[in-house]
Amino acid sequence: MAKINQETLDLAWHAHASSDADRVIQLLAADDILSQSHEDIEPAVLLGLALHDRGRAVEAADAIEKASLLGPIPDEARITLASCYAQLRRIDLARELYLELALSRRLDADLMLKVAGGLSAIDSPQLAMKVCEWITERDDSVAQAYYDMGVYSAHCGHALYISEALTRRALALDTGNVHYRVGLVSLLIQLQRDGEALQVALSFEVDQIRTATCFSCLQRIADILTRHNHTDLAIACHERSNALRAERAAKPIHSAKPTL
Q1: pLDDT at site 164
Q2: By its UniProt entry, which InterPro entries does this protein fall under (predicted)?
Q3: What pLDDT, on a 0 to 100 scale, did the predictor assign at position 210?
Q4: What CA–CA distance (Å, rounded) separates 84 from 93?
């Protein structure tokens, strides 16, 4: 069979960079890229990533597993394979692969955060916290690691003041981050410090609310704003919360962001 040529592969990488998974699959979904040849590792991995993005976990795992038999595959692909295993309820395999990646300590912060998110998604928030700790031990300027650690701490059932402290640490590193501020308001509401929560919530613009990603946080904020007659912001929070719930219902659980 004819091999995937470099031009097609370049087009597929461009489509992947543009988050056009359907185009990647259209370009690469052919039997010849899964033949037993070392040259087929790259297109097989890329196809697996695209299939995973489209929620086709069985096919994605198959493509990436076949690629891994031909030679080393990128860490991103191994994380994706673990995510596929999680979706297929092969939880032990997913956890083992996530931990192998984390324990290597060679991943950059972005990939380590994905590993932590994957562990949390398979009900291992304590392990997810530990991965975030490793990130901050290596680089204490990674704001997202502190924020996510706060989320996982809450999921572990730890006192919410710990999550608050970690969220404030994230905000100290990235002051203007709307997602962290939304998380902080949500925590303050849960801690029954409504006055502080309202003060932060009233600093939001409607356009900022539309970029938030935690539907449960937004619902809490909508409720407190409604109680204090701040109708426009409350409606924006409520609408965004509903939209996020609908998006989450349409996606595999692995793709959900950590939420408080």
Answers
A1: 97
A2: TPR-like_helical_dom_sf
A3: 92
A4: 10
Tell me the three state secondary structure of residue 160: helix
Q: CA 134, CA 250: separation in Å to the nearest integer?
A: 32
Question: pTM here?
Answer: 0.86
- Give the DSSP letter of residue 80: H
- Residue 34 per-residue DSSP state: G
Tell which residue, 98, 93, 91, has the closest CA to residue 112. Answer: 98
* Mean pLDDT in order along the chain per 10 residues (260 residues): 70 87 83 53 91 94 92 94 96 96 92 97 96 96 98 96 98 95 96 95 93 93 94 94 87 60
Cα–Cα nearest to 24, from 12, 33, 9, 14: 12
Whole-angstrom distance, CA of residue 76 vs CA of residue 98: 11
- Strand ranges (E), 110-195: none
User: 3-state class of 169 per DSSP?
Assistant: helix
Name 227's Cβ contacts closer than 8 Å, sequence gap at least 6: none
DSSP 8-state class, residue 253: G
